[in-house]
């Protein structure tokens, strides 16, 4: 539940550098369709849509689904907390 807020407080460039953890990238040195999605989401959360698009084009599908997922579980959490 706190992850979206944590990502909002981290700088947009927090995940831009460092070793990849993608098995495809590590084993075969090839990017998979999901490579860059974490960086893309992080930039989209900080409203840097051009960088987000540059990291992974699937952000137009992933971000709306993540928002729906977060809202659903936030609603479920608050309903159970105030019952």
Short description:
The chain is mainly alpha-helical and 83 residues long. The chain has helices at residues 3-9, 23-28, 37-45, 49-55, 59-81.
* Shape annotation: elongated
Tell me which oligomeric state these chains represent.
single chain
Secondary structure class reads: mainly alpha
Low-confidence stretches: none
Number of strands: 0
Give the SSE string.
HHHHH
Which bin fits the share of residues in helices?
A: 55-70%
Individual helix count: 5
Radius of gyration: 15 Å
Give the CA-CA distance, first to last residue: 18 Å
What is the overall pLDDT average?
A: 90
- What proportion strand? under 5%
Q: Please give the largest β-sheet.
A: none
How does this model look, in words?
This protein has 83 residues and is mainly alpha-helical. Helix content is 63%, strand content 0%. The chain is built from 5 helices and no strands. Helix 3 runs antiparallel to helix 4. The protein is elongated. The two termini are 18 Å apart. The model has no long low-confidence stretch (mean pLDDT 90).
Question: What attributes does this structure have?
Answer:
83 residues, 63% helix, mainly alpha
Helix and strand topology:
Elements: H1 3-9, H2 23-28, H3 37-45, H4 49-55, H5 59-81
Helix pairs in contact: 3-4
